[in-house]
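R.M. (postdoc): so does anyone remember the format we settled on? I'll just put the structure tokens first.
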């Protein structure tokens, strides 16, 4: 399968040139086989592209702009859908190609398959059945993991521990009182530090919000510029088509006049 990318080599729009370079550069980075088809110098390529872009994918004026991407005869999408697929690590799915093993898209597909099928790791034998050959101690099979010796040793330790519980209790009470006094002393020192940290976090959050607002404003301006350039390119294409139609009409008129003169 060959990926076809329809481009305009002599486009006067910098936005269209940038989009074309982005698509071609990313396909080359992925080492995907593709063919560039020029619609500016080849009328057949331009007509084929316009006829094979689905109607629901065409703009309001019915004239799709490059770049347009196909897998053989199957339509993949335009630059916007390609960009979305690139952001979601789904370029191979977008192109209708199987992702190479070990790629992010392949790993993501494997995870999705595991979640969908509910598969989980279990020990199996060579025939694919659960392996019953692993021996399990009788105590564990019966839910009793302790041997008689362990139970006896635990009983002795319990008797020895009862005698020292009272002494440990008195020591624990003294340590608790000391701990409470220490906590009261450190509480006063921690309060100013917490206030300073809260102020720093507030400043950082405000700074981050300002940067985010600035980035959004820059993105909006860039999008407006790209839209203006696309509209200008579309207008130029329409003027070229009108000029071609007018030129054909003039040629037909001249031929008619010559025939009448003869």
């Amino acid at each position: 399968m060959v990926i076809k990318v329809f481009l305009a080599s002599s486009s006067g729009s910098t936005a269209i040139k940038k989009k074309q370079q982005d698509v071609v550069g990313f396909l080359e980075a992925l080492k995907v086989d593709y063919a560039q088809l020029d619609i500016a110098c080849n009328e057949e390529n331009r007509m084929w592209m316009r006829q094979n872009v689905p109607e629901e994918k065409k703009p309001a004026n019915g004239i799709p702009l490059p770049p347009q991407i196909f897998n053989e005869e199957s339509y993949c999408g335009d630059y916007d859908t390609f960009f979305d697929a690139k952001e979601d690590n789904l370029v191979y799915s977008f192109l209708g190609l199987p992702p190479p093993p070990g790629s992010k898209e392949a790993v993501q597909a494997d995870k999705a398959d595991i979640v969908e099928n509910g598969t989980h790791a279990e020990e199996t034998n060579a025939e694919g059945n659960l392996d019953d050959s692993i021996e399990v101690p009788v105590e564990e099979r019966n839910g009793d993991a302790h041997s008689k010796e362990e139970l006896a040793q635990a009983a002795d330790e319990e008797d020895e521990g009862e005698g020292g519980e009272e002494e440990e209790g008195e020591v624990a009470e003294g340590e608790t009182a000391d701990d409470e006094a220490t906590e009261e002393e450190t509480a006063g020192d921690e309060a100013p530090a917490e206030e300073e940290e809260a102020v720093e976090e507030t400043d950082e959050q405000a700074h981050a919000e300002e940067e985010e607002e600035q980035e959004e404003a820059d993105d909006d301006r860039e999008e407006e510029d790209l839209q203006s350039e696309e509209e200008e390119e579309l207008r130029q294409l329409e003027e070229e088509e009108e000029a071609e139609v007018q030129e054909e009409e003039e040629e037909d008129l001249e031929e008619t006049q010559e025939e009448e003169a003869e």
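R.M.: ...and that's the designed sequence above, right after the tokens. Also worth knowing: The CA atoms of residues 217 and 223 lie 10 Å apart. Residues 148-261 form the longest helix (114 residues).
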